[in-house]
Amino acid sequence: SCDNCPDSVWTISGDDRTGEVAARFPLPWSHYVRLLSVRSSHARHFYEQGLQQLAAGQVLAAAASLKLALTFGGDEPEYKKAYQEAAERSRAQTAENLFKRATFDESVGRLDTAYPMYVQAAEAQPKAAYLAKAAEAMLGSRDLIKARDYGTKAVQSDPTFVDARIALAKVLDAAGMRKNARRELEEALKLEPGNA
After folding, report:
1. Angle at CA of residue 143, ends 139 and 144, nearest 5°
2. Nearest to 120 by CA among 144, 140, 100
3. Which pLDDT does position 1 carry in this prediction?
């Protein structure tokens, strides 16, 4: 203690709360410092593991490890950045796997499993090819509202992707919007004149 120090140095808001703090933290401070360092070492371990998995192309495992690094390490910017990269690559891989499986299922006539996977692929990674197939899947399921939504998003995602224009034209035609369907087909023909 300090004989020359004012009482406010040793109290919070003029109240002595030492007993209250001691009640919340009954163990010696060194124990809490050790717990914090263990937590950080776990975070570092998962971060390094995640980076190795990412480098090896194991993006799903990397995303899981880096999520644990964030959990143990708080908002450490390097952990957050690595996790975001792994999560994006993980979504892309998941979408690609779903799309491939849906394409196979569709080729063997299993539309009941193919259609939902096309939609899941489009939701995981909204790129034009996935969105166009999701539009066709919803058209096949007779859900014209969702089909138009996916078809429109496909064209917006890549206006030069002919399959997106054709998918949207099919949906618009099924909805009785013949002029709009014709406009989409004309745009597709401008992009690929030999595709008549």
Report:
1. 70
2. 100
3. 46
pLDDT at 163 over 80: yes
pLDDT tens figures, 82-122: 899 999 999 999 999 999 999 999 999 999 999 999 999 99
Half-sphere exposure of 63 (CA within 13 A, CB side): 13
Which residues are bridge partners to 12 per DSSP?
Answer: 15
CA gap 137, 4 in Å, rounded? 80
d(CA 162, CA 179): 18
Rounded to two decimals, the pTM is: 0.69
Paired tokens of 109: 């006539």
Nearest to 140, CA basis, from 151, 154, 124, 129: 151
Residues 19-47 as b/e (b if ≥16 CB within 10 A, e otherwise) read: eeeeeeeeeeeeeeeeeeeeeeeebeebb
The closest alpha carbon to 124, from 91, 153, 100, belongs to 91
